[in-house]
Amino acid sequence: MAIETILLAVGPMDTVRAPELAQTALEIADPLGATVVIGHAFTEDEYEDVHDDLGLNARVEDVDPDEVAARRAPVPQLAERFEEAGVDYEIKGALGEVSSQVVDMAIDVDADRMIVGGRRRSPAEKAVLGSVSQEIILQAPCPVTYFRDLDVME
């Protein structure tokens, strides 16, 4: 199976590990000539929280998720890295429940591989709060590379 499209799913907690996530994606995409889709799904609450910070005037009902994703950290930093490396990339955003939106995004872009980051949580935290990355891995339509960063905490 050829890898033509890689979905790099990121969130705001991924800002601290963006260089490592970009390197992981580049190690796969660059030699294969694959396109990286930088995907950022966010909830309505998250959108409301960053609405003013990003200088957006649109109500949540009128938002263009791709535009918000393109301006939300760590997406610009990742895009710059792929641009410098000469790797084709796209930016996709989604609004709604994060794990299901990321899985839908992978289906929509026909991803051959996904890269998702996770953070260290205790079993009790996972039971109470859930795990977005775990849900993505379980529902993914393609193989997933899980980037675990022990330094990133809730």
From TrEMBL:
**Which residue range or ranges hold the UspA domain?**
4-146
- Entry-linked InterPro entries: Rossmann-like_a/b/a_fold, Universal_stress_UspA, UspA
- The protein's superkingdom reads Archaea
**Per the similarity annotation, which family is this?**
Belongs to the universal stress protein A family.
Q: What is this protein called?
A: Universal stress protein
